[in-house]
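Recall from the previous lesson that a structure prediction takes nothing but the amino acid sequence as input. Here we apply that procedure to 3-oxoacid CoA-transferase subunit B from Vreelandella zhuhanensis. The sequence below is the only information supplied.
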Amino acid sequence: MALTREQMAQRVARELEDGFYVNLGIGIPTLVANYIPDGIDVMLQSENGLLGMGRFPTEDELDPDMINAGKQTVTARPGAAIFSSAESFAMIRGGHVDLTVLGAFEVDQNGNIASWMVPGKLIKGMGGAMDLVAGAENIICTMTHASKHGESKLLESCNLPLTGAGCINRVLTDLAYLEIKDGAFILKERAPGVSVEEIVEKTAGKLIVPAHVPEMTFEESA
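The prediction returns the following C-alpha cells.
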C-alpha cells in the first residue's frame, strides 16, 4: 500500500540528526516538523526568514503573521530567529543548511532534479529550490513514484527543465526509499505491502535491487 503524506514525513524525520539545520520545502516536507524524534535538537529553516520553525499551530496558537515559505501558519520554537529573505538565502548559499527536503516532478538516475516548471503550464517561479539544491550536499526528495497516469517519475534522464544537476542523493516516494549512486537508483526500503516487482515496474531509470529489501514500519497513528 502506498505511503500517506504523513507516513512519508515520518520516514524523512528519521534521517534528522541532533544539531542539524534543516530546510523543509513546500508540501509534504513541511509535515516533517510534526515528527521530529524525541531526544534530538533540530533547527528548521524556512527560506522566507525563519530559523527555529516549530510544528503547525493549534487554533489558540494561530498567528497569521507567522508563516513558512508555503504561506502556511507555523509556530516558532524557543530560540528561534526571524530575519530577512536576503539573510536566509545567504545561509542557504553559504552551505550552512545540513539537510534539505523538497519535492519534485522528476528525478533521474544521475541525481538531476526537475521541480520548478512544466512547459505550457502556469509557472509560479522556481522559488528557492535552485539555491537549495546548489547550496546543500545532503538532499532528500519526496515525491510520488509515478504520475496519476502511471508514468514513472524516476527516470533515466529528466524530461522537464532542470532545477539542479547531479545534486540529489536520496529519494523517498510513496512506494520506496532509494539512494542514487554511480548512475543508478538503489532500492533501500519499500512501503508496507508494496512488492519489489511493483517498484521495478514503476521505475524507468536504472534500478539496483539488493537481495533483501526491508519494509518500512510505522506507528499506528501515522
